[in-house]
Design goal:
The chain is mainly alpha-helical. About 55% of the residues lie in helices and about 10% in strands. It is built from ten helices and three strands; from the N terminus they run αααααααααβββα. Strands 1-2-3 form a three-stranded antiparallel sheet, covered by helices on one side. β2 and β3 form a beta hairpin.
Length: about 230
Amino acid sequence: MDPRLDALQQRLGHRFAQPPLLVRALTHRSFGADHNERLEFLGDAVLSLAISGLLFERFSGSDEGDLTRVRAHLVREDSLFRTAAQLGLPEVLRMSDGEARAGGAQRPSILADALEAVIGAAFLDGGYDVAAGIVERLFGETIAGSEAAAWTKDAKTELQEWLQGRRLPVPAYRITSTRGQAHAQTFEVACDVSSLGLVETGEGRSRRLAEQEAARRMLVTLKASDQPGGPLRS
């Protein structure tokens, strides 16, 4: 086996009895028909269950809403991307030459999907306990060292709830510009609260991240305006 795969298995804490499963998990669809998308589907479910179990034990006093928000933070694309990068997945991914030249091995969506596929492959290779053990090694320290209150609602959710609590329409988001090459684009998104005549913009490496930044800036504006003497209180 490729020494890089040996090293990856050491970092995962699991040696595959069926090495082809790991190879498939690391294969992007651009490389061939035996790619990782089915394993990604399976791994997504296993990851969610394993994270839920860790959170249930760690935050025994938290309600369902808090646990759901923490889980959403842990399994979102940018979190999985960072974990996959730290695990060294960019060095072992298999993809077409064209995809590789376009920076596919550093693309957040591809790395996040590959991490889920690896977890799915581990589940098939060794069962749930093996897969859950990998998830705990990857995420356990982060979970153990945090408090539920530190995992705040994402900005778009908080903004929507803020507006709905005041019987105002939800905001509209639109892309105002994109910059850079296809594999490394920066998006600028406007968050429009037309009922109040307010617009804020945000930037990010994906549309979703740009929308979150625009929503965060809108919340800052709204909360400042909602103070005594502010425009929303006058």
